[in-house]
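Dear colleague,

Following up on yesterday's call, I've attached the two folding results inline so they're easy to grep. Please treat them as preliminary; we haven't cross-checked anything against experimental data yet. The first protein's sequence and C-alpha coordinates come first.
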Amino acid sequence: MILFINLNLYSQQKLVISIFGEDTDPVNLVSKEVLRQAYQSLDISIEFKNLPGSRSLIHADLGLIDGDLVRHGEINKEYPNLIPVPIAIYTVEFVVFVKDTNIKITNWESLWPYTISYLAGIKIIEENTAGMKVEAVQSEKQAFLKLYHSRSDIVIDPLLMGLVTLKQLNLTGITITGPPLETIKLYHHLHNKHELLVPKITRILEDMQKTKQIDQITNDIISEILE
Protein backbone atom coordinates (compact mmCIF):
# COMPACT_ATOMS: atom_id res chain seq x y z
CA MET A 1 0.00 0.00 0.00
CA ILE A 2 2.84 2.39 0.85
CA LEU A 3 4.44 1.87 -2.56
CA PHE A 4 1.08 2.39 -4.31
CA ILE A 5 0.48 5.66 -2.46
CA ASN A 6 3.97 6.91 -3.24
CA LEU A 7 3.62 6.14 -6.95
CA ASN A 8 0.33 8.02 -6.99
CA LEU A 9 2.14 10.99 -5.53
CA TYR A 10 4.91 10.69 -8.13
CA SER A 11 2.35 10.68 -10.93
CA GLN A 12 1.27 14.15 -9.84
CA GLN A 13 4.71 15.73 -10.05
CA LYS A 14 7.95 15.74 -12.01
CA LEU A 15 11.21 14.13 -11.09
CA VAL A 16 14.13 16.41 -11.93
CA ILE A 17 17.15 14.47 -13.20
CA SER A 18 20.58 16.06 -13.71
CA ILE A 19 22.54 15.70 -16.93
CA PHE A 20 26.25 16.24 -17.42
CA GLY A 21 27.76 16.90 -20.86
CA GLU A 22 26.57 17.96 -24.30
CA ASP A 23 22.98 17.54 -25.45
CA THR A 24 24.38 15.94 -28.60
CA ASP A 25 26.29 13.30 -26.61
CA PRO A 26 24.99 9.84 -27.67
CA VAL A 27 25.14 8.74 -24.03
CA ASN A 28 22.75 11.52 -23.03
CA LEU A 29 20.47 11.14 -26.06
CA VAL A 30 20.05 7.39 -25.54
CA SER A 31 19.78 7.52 -21.75
CA LYS A 32 17.21 10.32 -21.78
CA GLU A 33 14.97 8.42 -24.21
CA VAL A 34 15.30 5.15 -22.28
CA LEU A 35 14.37 6.86 -19.02
CA ARG A 36 11.52 8.84 -20.60
CA GLN A 37 9.95 5.60 -21.76
CA ALA A 38 10.68 3.77 -18.51
CA TYR A 39 9.16 6.45 -16.24
CA GLN A 40 6.25 6.93 -18.62
CA SER A 41 5.36 3.27 -17.94
CA LEU A 42 4.95 4.26 -14.29
CA ASP A 43 2.97 7.38 -15.22
CA ILE A 44 5.80 9.52 -13.84
CA SER A 45 7.02 12.57 -15.76
CA ILE A 46 10.68 13.60 -15.67
CA GLU A 47 12.51 16.81 -16.42
CA PHE A 48 16.20 16.92 -17.32
CA LYS A 49 18.47 19.67 -15.98
CA ASN A 50 21.90 20.31 -17.47
CA LEU A 51 24.56 21.07 -14.88
CA PRO A 52 28.30 21.46 -15.50
CA GLY A 53 30.99 19.14 -14.21
CA SER A 54 30.58 17.70 -10.73
CA ARG A 55 27.66 20.01 -9.91
CA SER A 56 25.23 17.49 -11.40
CA LEU A 57 26.41 14.85 -8.91
CA ILE A 58 26.65 17.27 -5.99
CA HIS A 59 23.10 18.54 -6.50
CA ALA A 60 21.76 15.00 -6.87
CA ASP A 61 23.66 13.76 -3.81
CA LEU A 62 22.36 16.66 -1.69
CA GLY A 63 18.79 15.94 -2.80
CA LEU A 64 18.42 19.36 -4.46
CA ILE A 65 17.25 17.37 -7.48
CA ASP A 66 15.93 13.82 -7.66
CA GLY A 67 18.75 11.94 -9.35
CA ASP A 68 21.43 11.78 -12.02
CA LEU A 69 20.97 10.55 -15.60
CA VAL A 70 23.76 7.92 -15.85
CA ARG A 71 27.11 7.32 -14.19
CA HIS A 72 29.36 4.36 -13.57
CA GLY A 73 28.11 1.96 -10.93
CA GLU A 74 30.56 2.88 -8.17
CA ILE A 75 29.97 6.63 -8.14
CA ASN A 76 27.98 6.23 -4.91
CA LYS A 77 31.24 5.48 -3.07
CA GLU A 78 31.96 9.20 -3.45
CA TYR A 79 28.31 10.31 -3.40
CA PRO A 80 26.70 7.97 -0.83
CA ASN A 81 23.18 9.40 -1.04
CA LEU A 82 22.81 8.18 -4.64
CA ILE A 83 21.31 4.73 -5.26
CA PRO A 84 22.25 3.04 -8.56
CA VAL A 85 19.38 1.45 -10.47
CA PRO A 86 21.10 -1.89 -11.24
CA ILE A 87 20.26 -2.22 -14.95
CA ALA A 88 22.90 -0.85 -17.34
CA ILE A 89 21.45 1.72 -19.73
CA TYR A 90 24.54 2.35 -21.85
CA THR A 91 28.03 0.93 -22.38
CA VAL A 92 30.68 3.49 -23.21
CA GLU A 93 34.20 3.05 -24.60
CA PHE A 94 36.78 5.66 -23.61
CA VAL A 95 39.36 6.03 -26.39
CA VAL A 96 42.36 8.21 -27.20
CA PHE A 97 42.30 10.62 -30.16
CA VAL A 98 45.61 11.87 -31.59
CA LYS A 99 46.91 14.10 -34.34
CA ASP A 100 50.45 12.72 -34.23
CA THR A 101 50.22 9.11 -35.44
CA ASN A 102 53.58 8.33 -33.81
CA ILE A 103 51.84 8.43 -30.44
CA LYS A 104 50.94 4.90 -29.39
CA ILE A 105 48.69 4.38 -26.37
CA THR A 106 47.95 0.94 -24.96
CA ASN A 107 46.68 1.67 -21.43
CA TRP A 108 46.29 4.43 -18.85
CA GLU A 109 49.95 4.21 -17.78
CA SER A 110 51.16 4.93 -21.32
CA LEU A 111 49.56 8.41 -21.12
CA TRP A 112 52.23 9.79 -18.78
CA PRO A 113 54.49 11.50 -21.39
CA TYR A 114 51.66 13.44 -23.03
CA THR A 115 49.51 16.53 -22.50
CA ILE A 116 45.91 15.39 -22.14
CA SER A 117 42.64 17.22 -22.79
CA TYR A 118 39.24 15.94 -21.72
CA LEU A 119 35.79 17.14 -20.72
CA ALA A 120 35.80 18.34 -17.09
CA GLY A 121 33.72 16.23 -14.73
CA ILE A 122 34.33 12.76 -16.22
CA LYS A 123 35.33 10.97 -13.04
CA ILE A 124 36.93 7.91 -14.60
CA ILE A 125 39.34 10.10 -16.58
CA GLU A 126 40.08 12.31 -13.56
CA GLU A 127 40.89 9.27 -11.42
CA ASN A 128 43.11 7.52 -13.96
CA THR A 129 45.09 10.61 -15.02
CA ALA A 130 45.79 12.00 -11.54
CA GLY A 131 49.24 13.60 -11.49
CA MET A 132 49.57 13.64 -15.28
CA LYS A 133 49.72 16.71 -17.54
CA VAL A 134 46.01 17.32 -17.97
CA GLU A 135 43.70 20.15 -18.88
CA ALA A 136 40.01 19.66 -18.22
CA VAL A 137 37.92 21.83 -20.55
CA GLN A 138 34.26 22.80 -20.62
CA SER A 139 33.26 21.10 -23.88
CA GLU A 140 34.39 18.36 -26.24
CA LYS A 141 34.73 21.00 -28.95
CA GLN A 142 37.34 22.86 -26.88
CA ALA A 143 39.25 19.63 -26.30
CA PHE A 144 39.40 18.71 -29.98
CA LEU A 145 40.28 22.24 -31.09
CA LYS A 146 43.20 22.21 -28.65
CA LEU A 147 44.35 18.94 -30.18
CA TYR A 148 43.87 20.19 -33.74
CA HIS A 149 45.95 23.32 -33.02
CA SER A 150 48.65 21.21 -31.27
CA ARG A 151 48.00 22.73 -27.83
CA SER A 152 47.58 19.22 -26.45
CA ASP A 153 48.87 15.82 -27.53
CA ILE A 154 45.77 13.70 -27.00
CA VAL A 155 42.07 13.84 -26.21
CA ILE A 156 40.34 11.18 -24.13
CA ASP A 157 36.65 10.93 -24.91
CA PRO A 158 33.84 8.41 -25.37
CA LEU A 159 34.20 6.91 -28.84
CA LEU A 160 30.89 8.02 -30.36
CA MET A 161 30.91 11.49 -28.81
CA GLY A 162 34.40 12.05 -30.14
CA LEU A 163 33.33 11.06 -33.65
CA VAL A 164 30.26 13.29 -33.43
CA THR A 165 32.39 16.26 -32.32
CA LEU A 166 34.91 15.78 -35.12
CA LYS A 167 32.05 15.69 -37.61
CA GLN A 168 30.48 18.84 -36.15
CA LEU A 169 33.79 20.72 -36.32
CA ASN A 170 34.73 19.25 -39.71
CA LEU A 171 38.20 18.44 -38.41
CA THR A 172 40.50 16.13 -40.35
CA GLY A 173 43.81 14.49 -39.50
CA ILE A 174 42.67 13.26 -36.08
CA THR A 175 42.51 9.51 -35.49
CA ILE A 176 42.01 6.98 -32.72
CA THR A 177 45.06 5.17 -31.37
CA GLY A 178 45.15 1.87 -29.52
CA PRO A 179 42.34 -0.13 -27.93
CA PRO A 180 39.79 1.52 -25.60
CA LEU A 181 41.35 2.62 -22.32
CA GLU A 182 38.21 1.54 -20.49
CA THR A 183 34.81 0.08 -21.31
CA ILE A 184 32.22 0.75 -18.62
CA LYS A 185 28.53 0.27 -18.05
CA LEU A 186 26.48 3.29 -17.01
CA TYR A 187 23.58 3.28 -14.56
CA HIS A 188 20.80 5.68 -13.63
CA HIS A 189 20.99 6.96 -10.02
CA LEU A 190 18.26 8.24 -7.70
CA HIS A 191 18.61 10.15 -4.44
CA ASN A 192 17.88 7.92 -1.45
CA LYS A 193 14.71 9.89 -0.68
CA HIS A 194 13.30 7.91 -3.64
CA GLU A 195 14.39 4.54 -2.23
CA LEU A 196 10.89 3.07 -2.65
CA LEU A 197 10.92 3.94 -6.34
CA VAL A 198 14.18 2.10 -7.10
CA PRO A 199 12.78 -1.48 -7.28
CA LYS A 200 9.89 -0.30 -9.44
CA ILE A 201 12.04 1.46 -12.05
CA THR A 202 14.48 -1.47 -11.88
CA ARG A 203 11.75 -3.90 -12.93
CA ILE A 204 10.71 -1.66 -15.83
CA LEU A 205 14.30 -1.30 -17.10
CA GLU A 206 14.83 -5.05 -16.68
CA ASP A 207 11.80 -5.71 -18.88
CA MET A 208 13.07 -3.18 -21.43
CA GLN A 209 16.42 -4.96 -21.45
CA LYS A 210 14.88 -8.43 -21.89
CA THR A 211 12.65 -7.31 -24.75
CA LYS A 212 15.61 -5.54 -26.43
CA GLN A 213 13.79 -2.20 -26.14
CA ILE A 214 16.94 -0.51 -24.79
CA ASP A 215 18.98 -1.96 -27.67
CA GLN A 216 16.41 -0.71 -30.19
CA ILE A 217 16.41 2.81 -28.74
CA THR A 218 20.23 2.80 -28.78
CA ASN A 219 20.49 1.56 -32.36
CA ASP A 220 17.87 4.01 -33.65
CA ILE A 221 19.53 7.05 -32.06
CA ILE A 222 23.08 6.09 -33.02
CA SER A 223 22.02 5.36 -36.62
CA GLU A 224 20.40 8.80 -36.79
CA ILE A 225 23.52 10.46 -35.37
CA LEU A 226 25.92 8.73 -37.75
CA GLU A 227 23.79 9.63 -40.76
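Below is the second protein, in the same order (sequence, then structure):
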Amino acid sequence: MDEAPPDSWFKRHFGNLLLTTYLIVEGCRGYLDADEVWDQAWWIIVTAVLVFNVLRRLPPYSEDRSLKAWIFVFLSLSHIMFFEESEGAVTARFMLLALLLLADGCLLYLGRSISLLPARREIKTGFLYRAVRHPAYGLYIIGDLLYLVAKPQPRNFLVAFIGIGSFVFRAHYEERVLAEDPAYREYQEKTPWRFLPGIY
Protein backbone atom coordinates (compact mmCIF):
# COMPACT_ATOMS: atom_id res chain seq x y z
CA MET A 1 0.00 0.00 0.00
CA ASP A 2 1.34 3.43 -0.93
CA GLU A 3 2.02 5.85 1.90
CA ALA A 4 0.00 9.05 2.01
CA PRO A 5 2.02 11.98 0.67
CA PRO A 6 3.33 14.29 3.40
CA ASP A 7 1.42 17.51 3.98
CA SER A 8 2.81 20.56 2.24
CA TRP A 9 4.65 23.17 4.30
CA PHE A 10 1.74 25.58 3.80
CA LYS A 11 -0.84 23.05 5.00
CA ARG A 12 1.22 22.20 8.10
CA HIS A 13 1.71 25.86 9.00
CA PHE A 14 -1.57 27.38 7.78
CA GLY A 15 -2.98 27.70 11.32
CA ASN A 16 0.20 29.41 12.56
CA LEU A 17 0.19 31.84 9.63
CA LEU A 18 -3.49 32.64 10.10
CA LEU A 19 -3.18 33.21 13.84
CA THR A 20 -0.01 35.29 13.35
CA THR A 21 -1.83 37.48 10.81
CA TYR A 22 -4.78 37.95 13.18
CA LEU A 23 -2.51 38.82 16.12
CA ILE A 24 -0.54 41.37 14.09
CA VAL A 25 -3.71 43.03 12.74
CA GLU A 26 -5.27 43.10 16.22
CA GLY A 27 -2.03 44.40 17.72
CA CYS A 28 -1.83 47.21 15.14
CA ARG A 29 -5.46 48.13 15.78
CA GLY A 30 -4.87 48.24 19.53
CA TYR A 31 -1.68 50.24 19.11
CA LEU A 32 -3.38 52.82 16.88
CA ASP A 33 -6.36 53.13 19.26
CA ALA A 34 -4.13 53.53 22.33
CA ASP A 35 -3.90 57.03 23.81
CA GLU A 36 -1.04 56.51 26.24
CA VAL A 37 2.58 55.49 25.62
CA TRP A 38 2.36 52.67 28.19
CA ASP A 39 -0.75 51.34 26.42
CA GLN A 40 1.04 51.38 23.06
CA ALA A 41 4.03 49.62 24.62
CA TRP A 42 1.72 46.97 26.10
CA TRP A 43 0.20 46.22 22.68
CA ILE A 44 3.66 45.91 21.13
CA ILE A 45 4.99 43.60 23.86
CA VAL A 46 1.94 41.33 24.04
CA THR A 47 1.65 41.05 20.27
CA ALA A 48 5.37 40.27 19.90
CA VAL A 49 5.30 37.57 22.61
CA LEU A 50 2.13 35.95 21.23
CA VAL A 51 3.46 35.93 17.67
CA PHE A 52 6.78 34.46 18.87
CA ASN A 53 4.94 31.64 20.68
CA VAL A 54 2.70 30.94 17.70
CA LEU A 55 5.59 30.76 15.24
CA ARG A 56 7.43 28.21 17.38
CA ARG A 57 4.40 25.96 17.99
CA LEU A 58 4.48 22.33 17.02
CA PRO A 59 1.57 20.91 14.99
CA PRO A 60 -1.34 19.88 17.24
CA TYR A 61 -1.92 16.25 18.19
CA SER A 62 -5.47 16.73 16.91
CA GLU A 63 -7.54 19.66 15.67
CA ASP A 64 -11.17 20.39 14.76
CA ARG A 65 -11.20 22.17 11.39
CA SER A 66 -14.95 21.85 10.84
CA LEU A 67 -16.99 24.72 9.42
CA LYS A 68 -18.87 25.05 12.73
CA ALA A 69 -15.63 25.50 14.62
CA TRP A 70 -14.50 28.20 12.15
CA ILE A 71 -17.86 30.00 12.47
CA PHE A 72 -17.69 30.19 16.27
CA VAL A 73 -14.05 31.32 16.16
CA PHE A 74 -14.99 34.07 13.70
CA LEU A 75 -18.00 35.24 15.76
CA SER A 76 -16.08 35.25 19.03
CA LEU A 77 -13.29 37.35 17.51
CA SER A 78 -15.38 39.79 15.46
CA HIS A 79 -18.59 40.49 17.41
CA ILE A 80 -16.98 43.12 19.63
CA MET A 81 -16.61 45.48 16.63
CA PHE A 82 -20.41 45.83 16.45
CA PHE A 83 -21.03 47.08 19.98
CA GLU A 84 -22.17 50.68 20.28
CA GLU A 85 -20.03 52.18 23.02
CA SER A 86 -21.06 54.76 25.57
CA GLU A 87 -18.47 57.54 25.44
CA GLY A 88 -19.26 58.81 28.94
CA ALA A 89 -18.93 55.46 30.74
CA VAL A 90 -15.41 56.02 32.15
CA THR A 91 -15.78 53.33 34.83
CA ALA A 92 -16.89 50.74 32.29
CA ARG A 93 -13.95 51.60 30.02
CA PHE A 94 -11.51 51.23 32.94
CA MET A 95 -13.03 47.87 33.85
CA LEU A 96 -12.84 46.73 30.21
CA LEU A 97 -9.14 47.62 30.15
CA ALA A 98 -8.56 45.61 33.35
CA LEU A 99 -10.39 42.62 31.85
CA LEU A 100 -8.36 42.89 28.65
CA LEU A 101 -5.09 42.91 30.61
CA LEU A 102 -6.15 39.79 32.54
CA ALA A 103 -7.28 38.04 29.34
CA ASP A 104 -3.94 38.93 27.71
CA GLY A 105 -2.25 37.38 30.74
CA CYS A 106 -4.17 34.15 30.09
CA LEU A 107 -3.11 34.12 26.44
CA LEU A 108 0.51 34.78 27.38
CA TYR A 109 0.36 31.96 29.93
CA LEU A 110 -0.83 29.51 27.25
CA GLY A 111 2.42 30.10 25.37
CA ARG A 112 2.80 27.65 22.51
CA SER A 113 -0.55 26.03 23.34
CA ILE A 114 -2.51 29.06 22.06
CA SER A 115 -4.78 28.27 19.14
CA LEU A 116 -7.64 29.64 17.07
CA LEU A 117 -9.31 26.35 16.18
CA PRO A 118 -10.01 23.70 18.81
CA ALA A 119 -6.66 21.90 19.06
CA ARG A 120 -4.84 19.62 21.48
CA ARG A 121 -1.31 20.59 22.41
CA GLU A 122 0.25 20.83 25.88
CA ILE A 123 -2.41 21.01 28.61
CA LYS A 124 -2.03 24.14 30.78
CA THR A 125 -3.63 24.18 34.24
CA GLY A 126 -1.92 27.00 36.15
CA PHE A 127 -2.52 30.75 36.57
CA LEU A 128 -6.27 31.56 36.24
CA TYR A 129 -6.78 28.10 34.73
CA ARG A 130 -6.66 26.77 38.30
CA ALA A 131 -10.07 28.35 38.93
CA VAL A 132 -11.84 27.87 35.56
CA ARG A 133 -11.10 25.97 32.37
CA HIS A 134 -11.57 28.93 30.01
CA PRO A 135 -10.66 32.09 31.97
CA ALA A 136 -10.00 34.27 28.91
CA TYR A 137 -13.46 33.46 27.52
CA GLY A 138 -14.98 34.17 30.93
CA LEU A 139 -13.29 37.59 30.99
CA TYR A 140 -14.49 38.35 27.45
CA ILE A 141 -18.04 37.41 28.47
CA ILE A 142 -17.86 39.81 31.42
CA GLY A 143 -16.63 42.43 28.94
CA ASP A 144 -19.68 41.80 26.73
CA LEU A 145 -21.93 42.29 29.77
CA LEU A 146 -20.13 45.55 30.61
CA TYR A 147 -21.01 46.91 27.17
CA LEU A 148 -24.66 46.19 28.02
CA VAL A 149 -24.42 47.89 31.41
CA ALA A 150 -22.78 50.95 29.82
CA LYS A 151 -25.32 51.19 27.00
CA PRO A 152 -28.30 48.82 27.32
CA GLN A 153 -29.95 49.02 23.92
CA PRO A 154 -31.27 46.38 21.47
CA ARG A 155 -28.21 46.35 19.22
CA ASN A 156 -25.88 45.69 22.13
CA PHE A 157 -28.15 42.96 23.50
CA LEU A 158 -28.01 41.19 20.14
CA VAL A 159 -24.23 41.55 19.81
CA ALA A 160 -23.69 40.32 23.40
CA PHE A 161 -26.00 37.35 22.79
CA ILE A 162 -24.00 36.39 19.69
CA GLY A 163 -20.67 36.91 21.45
CA ILE A 164 -21.52 34.97 24.60
CA GLY A 165 -23.08 32.17 22.57
CA SER A 166 -19.98 31.92 20.38
CA PHE A 167 -17.72 31.58 23.45
CA VAL A 168 -19.96 28.86 24.90
CA PHE A 169 -19.91 26.85 21.68
CA ARG A 170 -16.21 27.52 21.07
CA ALA A 171 -15.40 26.15 24.53
CA HIS A 172 -17.61 23.11 23.83
CA TYR A 173 -15.76 22.30 20.61
CA GLU A 174 -12.38 22.84 22.26
CA GLU A 175 -13.20 20.52 25.13
CA ARG A 176 -14.31 17.79 22.75
CA VAL A 177 -10.80 17.80 21.28
CA LEU A 178 -8.94 18.36 24.54
CA ALA A 179 -10.81 15.54 26.30
CA GLU A 180 -9.00 13.07 24.05
CA ASP A 181 -6.13 13.60 26.50
CA PRO A 182 -6.55 11.77 29.86
CA ALA A 183 -4.72 14.64 31.58
CA TYR A 184 -7.42 17.06 30.41
CA ARG A 185 -10.22 14.77 31.58
CA GLU A 186 -8.58 14.70 35.01
CA TYR A 187 -8.31 18.51 34.89
CA GLN A 188 -12.03 18.75 34.05
CA GLU A 189 -12.89 16.73 37.15
CA LYS A 190 -10.72 18.92 39.37
CA THR A 191 -11.92 22.18 37.75
CA PRO A 192 -15.71 21.94 37.26
CA TRP A 193 -16.31 25.55 36.20
CA ARG A 194 -15.90 26.62 32.58
CA PHE A 195 -15.98 30.43 32.68
CA LEU A 196 -16.90 31.85 36.09
CA PRO A 197 -16.26 30.13 39.45
CA GLY A 198 -19.48 29.07 41.14
CA ILE A 199 -21.64 30.18 38.19
CA TYR A 200 -20.82 28.22 35.02
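For the second protein, one point worth flagging: The two ends are 50 Å apart (CA to CA).

Best wishes,
A.L.
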